[in-house]
Amino acid sequence: MTPRSLSDEFYRLLDALVDESLTPSQNQQLQDLLRDNPAAQREYHTYLDLHLELRRLTRLPAAGEVLSRPWPPQRPARRRLPHWKAWTSLMAVLGITITLYCLQPPQVPPVVLQPEPVIDQPDELPTTPPESSTAVRLTQVAGAEFFGERVPAIHDHIPLLRTYALIRGQIELTFPKGATAIVKGPALFSIETPERLNLQVGSCSVHAPEGAEGFRVMTPKSEVVDLGTRFSVKVSDSGQSDVQVVEGAAEVHLASADRSQPQLLKSGQAIRTSQNTQSIVPIPFQAQQYQSSLPDRVLSYEAEQVPGTNTVRDLVSVTVQRGGVEWTYPVQDLIGIEVLHFRASKNSHNIAWDGTFPEHPVDLLEKDVALNTGLFNPGGRNKPPAQSATSLEEERNRPGLAVRFRTPLRNAPGADLVLFEVQSPIYPAEGDAFRVGPIVPTAGLNSHLVERYDITLHSKNALLIAPFNLTTLSRPPRSLDELNSPIQASPIKYHSFFSAIAVGIDLSSMGYADGEEVSELFFENAKDEEFFFDPVFIGGFPPLESPVK
Amino acid sequence: MSQLHSDQQYEEFLALFTGERERLFRYIFSLLPNHADAEDVFQRCSLILWRKFSEFDRERSFFSWSCGIALHEIRNFLRSSHRQKLTFDSELVTQLSDQRLTDLESTEDNMRYLANCLERLPHADRELVQVAYDGTTTLKKFSRTSGQALQTLYNRLGRLRRQLLDCVRKKATLEGLP
């Protein structure tokens, strides 16, 4: 069935091409066969299509995979202004950068492709995935979002020589010899070699422990070579870069200068390399430019897989960074809740369940750890709650969800409780906004707005959940009694398009003092009445002095 | 950014880009048949397309417009590539681009039959395709663990590709029969 006029040699060359083992002489041979030969060109295209389709069919989604991943993310037909604003803001922030990066005149090669100075530059791109000992890995993520792709999962390797646009948030990269770099968005960066980060725009903080000396950070006009240290690099969109050495020492080379004349920087020193003057000048040292860790947040969670599917149901554990330290809490050690109040505003799709319809719908939040069941769409007010005190009864009549923790939470560094909700790709990937605060407005306390979850749909750590039923009530319930005695319409079955996303909430964000105990909280929808939040699990973290591990 | 885009423009861009992203990647990959290179250029193109979307003439095909921008980026890339001995020369890139655009605009996507053809392969053959393509290991490692010579595996993989291509073509022909 293959065209008879094409030789076996032609196919051998195509195989070498797609296997990325083509030699320069074979490349020339292939070009000679393709030139002025439409039949060969058609067959070449077909062969490449076959190759791409085989890759798509067999490959699990991975970091840097373009075809296996939908892009841009699917959005609802009606978009919310805040999300759009985020895009506009991104474009504004990266506008100059992108202009410089993408639209350089053809005669000026993009920085990333012709890095200066060139040291130990590999001759060819890698042709096979790196061995684990030479792989650069993504080791931490906080609120990160890449342009045009999902954030790789924690511990995924980051391919060499591929430019990433980190729109927002922060990531930590760990290099094979132990150096770590925290890159803060907006930033454009690539990994040049297993020991060299190319930072075109943005900022990064590097820690190169013993054994990782020699780690380098390239900028458009300079290169910083580590001599066993902690340092930060900040590159503006004009190419100007600031280097601050917090500990140890580093050498700074100008791209255009003789490499034997580096500038040695010691602890407490800072310099600026200018795009225009090609010079290095000292600047005041600012220790705060260096970032030693990512913000406290929920890092990941584990849930039990439903046999024979790629979905999960029951929460098993939550891993969270509190006070800069990572803790993993089995679900049975989290502090459970009692639902005190539930009132919807206009949405009557409120009871998400599976198996058999629950006798008491509040059990879906109080008594199970399933991530596909809960009380959806609590109401909320359009405006932030007033700070003036009102009566308890008045507050309890307001739309939202009030809960009491079975034992009081004690305010500690980082998140004190976690909330999971479900989300599908047609809804905001960063999660449905809500407010949380004291049940009764109290002087000195405030309601905290959550607009972005720690684990969002952009993260591969958001797991697909098992199908669930969503029961619609005859009208939006105004109380727990109405919720517990629903007049059922037929439930709608939702299949596996939903993932569980999570956010950690710090009691300090509501004004509670360190060590203060808190028993009750009020959650309400925020921002709009189009996308309501859908809580499936709320749990408190144990006091920090007695973590599980 | 010198010009703010409207919400409506964003929606329109998403719809058009989502619909064409696979074809656009196939176009780029055919002129730059190395995954890292093609993905790099694809990323740049996605940024440029969005940035220039206000200039897009709605009377034209979005795919053709995207390919025009992609071709420009590919040429930039090739000019500055340090792998020039492993890329195609400018004249051949032009020829391949013309041919590719004609094919992608006019021909059926026969690769929809590939999954079925793949399923029909014997287990050992399917396993080899899986190893070569799923990204979790390498043929080199598989060669070590299975005790088979690496070149033998590459040769077998090449034969399997041809076999799958024949299968796909056969199914497409049968489908076209009345």
Fill in the keyword field for this structure.
heterodimer; A: about 550 residues; alpha+beta; 10-stranded mixed β-sheet; 5-stranded antiparallel β-sheet; 26 strands; B: about 180 residues; 8 helices; about 0% strand; disordered N terminus
Protein described:
The complex is a heterodimer of chains A (549) and B (178). By secondary structure, chain A is of the alpha+beta class. Chain A has helices spanning 8-18, 24-34, 38-58, 81-102, 363-366, 392-396, 480-484, and strands at 137-146, 164-174, 180-193, 196-208, 216-219, 222-235, 241-254, 263-266, 270-273, 280-282, 297-305, 312-322, 325-330, 337-343, 349-353, 374-375, 400-410, 417-423, 434-437, 448-450, 463-464, 468-472, 492-494, 499-505, 517-525, 535-540. With 178 residues, chain B is mainly alpha-helical. Helix content of chain B is 73%, strand content 0%. In chain B, helix 1 crosses helix 3 (62-80). At the A-B interface, helix 1, helix 2, helix 3 and helix 4 of A face helix 1, helix 2, helix 3, helix 4 and helix 5 of B.
Task: Set down the secondary structure blueprint.
The complex is a heterodimer of chains A (549) and B (178).
Chain A: H1 8-18, H2 24-34, H3 38-58, H4 81-102, E1 137-146, E2 164-174, E3 180-193, E4 196-208, E5 216-219, E6 222-235, E7 241-254, E8 263-266, E9 270-273, E10 280-282, E11 297-305, E12 312-322, E13 325-330, E14 337-343, E15 349-353, H5 363-366, E16 374-375, H6 392-396, E17 400-410, E18 417-423, E19 434-437, E20 448-450, E21 463-464, E22 468-472, H7 480-484, E23 492-494, E24 499-505, E25 517-525, E26 535-540
Parallel strand pairs in A: 4-5
Antiparallel strand pairs in A: 1-2, 2-3, 3-4, 4-6, 5-6, 6-7, 7-8, 7-9, 9-10, 11-12, 12-13, 14-17, 15-16, 15-22, 17-25, 18-24, 18-26, 19-20, 19-25, 21-24, 22-23
Helix pairs in contact in A: 1-2
Chain B: H1 7-31, H2 35-51, H3 62-80, H4 90-106, H5 114-119, H6 123-133, H7 139-146, H8 150-176
